[in-house]
Amino acid sequence: MSSIHDLARHLNISIGTVSRALNGRADVNAETRQRVLDAARRLNYSPNQSGRNLRRGATHAVAFMLQPHPGDQQYGEPFFIPFLTGLQAQLAESGLDLIVVMGAPGDYQHERLRRVVETRWADAVVLAWTRREDERIEYLTQAGFPFATLGRSRSGGKSYPALDLDFEKAGVDAVDRLVARGHRRIAAVRPSLNLNFGYLFLAGYRKALRRHGLEVDPDLIGAGFINEAGGYEITPQLMGSSNPPTAIIFNNDAMALGGCRALVEMGLKPGHDVAVTVIVDTALCRYYSPALTSFRPALEPLGRRLAEMLLASMPSFAGPDGPRIIREVWPLELVARDSD
Questions:
Q1: SS3 label, residue 235
Q2: CATH fold of 4-47, please?
Q3: CA angle 223, 224, 230 (to 5 degrees)
Q4: CATH of 61-165+299-330, one of 3.30.420.10, 3.40.50.2300, 1.10.10.10, 3.40.250.10
Q5: Axis-axis angle for helices 77-92, 299-312 (nearest 10)
Q6: Phi and psi at residue 190, in whole multiples of 5°?
Q7: How confident is the model at residue 109 (pLDDT cuts 50, 70, 90)?
Q8: Does residue 23 have a pLDDT over 90?
Q9: Could you report the per-residue pLDDT of 206-246, keeping only the tens digit for each?
Q10: Which of 251, 298, 240 lies closest to 276, judged by CA?
């Protein structure tokens, strides 16, 4: 590809004139502008977008920070692809691109996030996997950099847009459903790494148990990596209790699949010997045997709505009333299947 210097030399005019012509400036006559555009096409000229963005002070892009988890299996695709589809579609309507920035396992994206902000890779950031106390949120708040979160946190107050799923209500509903089927020993498996939605789920789980007059047994609460391996490793520990559970609620589909595999290897049939419920539904839940009872989020609309909330908080995209900080919690729909 040619550079702007190549174009200027080829046309024997100044770089400044070429730049003004390419940007449609009125101080370049129509004949010169057409000569520059024709030459740019012939020479396959591509502008240095980074330089143009720095000069304009905008990149017209939003960065989604995706954090892989340690281990040999990385969870995320069944959940995030539909969500990102909605997020990208809504941003595109405002002329913005979506870029996905992968963090390295273990660093929780601190270094990558700083790079995005300090080198201005994007005009705003969307964070997922929000922790109960989240240093990334504190950093972005102090930096004054526009951002929104998929999930709530105790960090940053209410100074930024946040869209979350109602994990607490799903925890309540899951316990209620199992108790109605006669279960009294109900285990709960949440993600480790202090992810906030795991705490919200457990709050609902505990609330429902107490309402039914059931003991909250610490031996029936487990945590693991949010992938198949995490569920596979924690399930035998729960079932090894002196008074094992008759039902297990997994916080997500990948952990549930690993947990079901562990149950089968222990000689137990999921849905028959042990009831299984999943808080976040994906296609994996529908095609497992037995099909897993779960709680379904509207992922693509969720992505679209978070994009709307982010844009409403940014002065350059806000409506006539100015920037607004919107925070919402969306319900999860129970999908009754065979596993419980």
A1: helix
A2: 434 Repressor (Amino-terminal Domain) (1.10.260)
A3: 140
A4: 3.40.50.2300
A5: 40
A6: -115, 165
A7: low
A8: no
A9: 999 999 999 999 999 999 988 899 999 999 999 998 899 99
A10: 251
**Equal fold, 4-47 vs 61-165+299-330:** no
At residue 22's C-alpha, the angle toward residues 18 and 26, to 5°, is: 90
Token pair 């844009």: residue: 311
Beta strand spans in 103-182 (E): 124-127, 147-150, 162-165
Q: Which CATH architecture has domain 167-296?
A: 3-Layer(aba) Sandwich (3.40)
Cα-based angle 137, 49, 92 (whole degrees, multiple of 5): 60
Residue 140 one-letter amino acid: L
For the chain, give the percent of residues with pLDDT over 90. Answer: 66
Torsion angle (degrees, nearest 10) of CA 208, 210, 215, 217: 50
